[in-house]
Specification:
By secondary structure, the chain is of the alpha/beta class. It folds into two domains: about 5-155, no CATH class; about 165-365, Rossmann fold, CATH 3.40.50.1000. It has 14 helices and 16 strands. The mean pLDDT is about 90.
């Protein structure tokens, strides 16, 4: 059965807008009638086609124009689906207006409010079924210059996800460990140049790692404890994200192209279920400049996600991967949900969702864990 979804966005100071009595009689479902982010958002489901009420809609739009309100509408069919809109950041009326206008161009209409607390807002959207990637990229373009994270996501049910895997350097923690070791030794420029080329996808990861580690040859292994004690800090929201994932019944792990000495510390600090990384060779208390065993590179990260999923009796589609660099891309693409965290452009372009401004706990908002 065809219907029309109608929404009105008004400045909070003006309050909600009344529908003409003749239209009010058609309302089948009042989905939202709420003040949020400095606006009144009203949305309705009308069991008629747009053509049947076109004169009313046109008149409503004319009235709204003089009152600084926005009226949007779109036809809906029985094939329409529901998804979630998430906004996370400084609550701004302009951001909400831009978001809903951009979505309207894709026939996605606001419905009920799922969650609105402080700077977090989640709404149900109704519209055509299909991939959400284009909607997300258009939203990010529309909100350029606004310090706000945004995503349109499916409405996943509780228990859908079984595993969360995250990168370590510049993801779960705010540093690149090998860069900090190099800085401590006065070698930061040499190592950072190799790291940057690797993270941008310009240099084979295994080659770049071996080159960087060779620069550390002869260094006392005690430098590792020094970096952990003096420089290693969790990224904002890391602890909250891990706690939220565990509360949802997920197992959580770190998978890193860095070193086991750091991931073991992180595993203990965050009570992680898994920790995978490379092992620095240490002989007589000194780093030899060699890496032991197979290197955890981009392919290995994706393979580990697969193996862990199988061990949990599921597959990659029920897993979440978070990272920031090119060596995280295969894992991010393989996971059911791949999230780019303050990431390089090549990663942002291919991830399902992006966190550009907020902390890692933004992922909890995207996944619906704050209003489950």
């Amino acid at each position: 059965m065809s219907s029309t979804r109608l929404a009105i966005l008004s400045p909070a100071s003006r309050g909600p807008m009344s529908l003409p009595a003749s239209m009010g009689q058609l309302v089948a479902d009042v989905e939202s009638h709420q003040e949020l982010w400095g606006c009144w958002l009203q949305s309705w489901n009308l069991p008629v086609t747009v053509s049947e009420i076109a004169p009313f809609l046109d008149e409503l739009a004319r009235q709204a124009l003089h009152q600084e309100r926005e009226v949007i509408w779109a036809p809906m069919s029985s094939a329409s689906s529901a998804v979630r809109l998430v906004l996370h950041g400084a609550a701004q009326p302009e951001a909400l207006r831009r978001t809903l206008t951009t979505l309207h161009l894709q026939s996605l209409m606001p419905g009920r409010v799922l969650h609105c607390q402080g700077d977090d807002l989640a709404l149900v959207l109704h519209g055509p079924s299909g991939p959400l990637g284009a909607s997300n990229h258009r939203l990010i373009e529309a909100l350029e210059g606004v310090f706000l994270d945004v995503a349109v996501t499916p409405l996943w049910g509780k228990g859908h996800f079984r595993l969360l895997l995250a990168d370590m350097d510049s993801t779960l923690i705010g540093i690149e460990c090998i860069d900090e070791m190099a800085d401590h030794l006065g070698l930061r420029r040499q190592v950072a140049a190799i790291t940057e080329r690797s993270m941008a996808g310009e240099l084979d990861f295994q080659t770049s790692l071996r080159e960087r580690v060779r620069l550390l040859a002869g260094t006392p292994a005690s430098i590792i404890d020094t970096i952990i004690r003096e420089r290693l800090r969790l990224s904002p929201g890391a602890r909250e994200l891990v706690a939220a994932a565990k509360a949802q019944g997920l197992e959580v792990g770190v998978v890193s192209g860095g070193f086991t000495q750091f991931t073991r510390h992180l595993q203990e600090a965050l009570d992680l279920d898994y920790a995978f990384a490379n092992t620095l060779e240490i002989i007589d208390g000194q780093i030899t400049g060699q890496v032991l065993g197979d290197i955890v590179d981009a392919t290995a990260k994706a393979d580990l996600l697969d193996l862990l999923a199988i061990s949990l009796g599921t597959d990659a589609s029920h897993c979440i991967a978070i990272g920031d660099g090119a060596n995280d891309l295969p894992m991010i693409r393989k996971a059911g949900v791949g999230i780019a965290y303050h990431a390089k452009a090549v990663v942002r372009a291919q991830a399902d969702f992006q966190i550009r401004y907020g902390g890692l706990d933004t992922a909890s908002t995207y996944l619906g864990w704050d209003n489950a």
